[in-house]
Design brief:
With about 160 residues, the chain is mainly alpha-helical. The protein has two domains: about 80 residues, no CATH class; about 45 residues, no CATH class. It has six helices and three strands, in the order H-E-H-H-H-E-E-H-H. A three-stranded antiparallel β-sheet has the order 1-2-3, with no helix packed on it.
Length: about 160
Amino acid sequence: MSDHSDAGHNSLAHDEEASRRNLDEREEKPTTPTFSSSSYAFDDSTDSSTIFDFDDAALLEDAADVSYTNNDDEQMLHDIADNMIGRNIPFESPFGVKAQCYADYTASGKAIESIEQFMRNEVMPTYGNTHTTTSVTGLQTTSFREEARQIVARA
């Protein structure tokens, strides 16, 4: 009799497991956008004005106390935009392939190639803990940090 009840119990457990698997299979899996720099990459010659519909003046409206009429300032903005890492990586949306439009610069900016190259070549080879000034690497990194603070204070 105990063999029969164990067999019934095992059969019931098997049926519950099968039902659970069927429910799992029927659940909709969340879809995530696919990124493919090889399939849809925009090359450097892509005219961004055909992708993004805005002008630089609209980006500068919030800086009312600063004049951006100088061509040097406009050139600087274009240079920064051209150096932005990931600017040519589109994504596939439900509405087709779209260009990225990053708009959360307050929280975290996008990486700029020229800055990253400087960090990789000049800072990282001698990078060390800024709390340790008894080592060459710690002292150098502390010096970099202090120099950066002075530059920001003067700006």
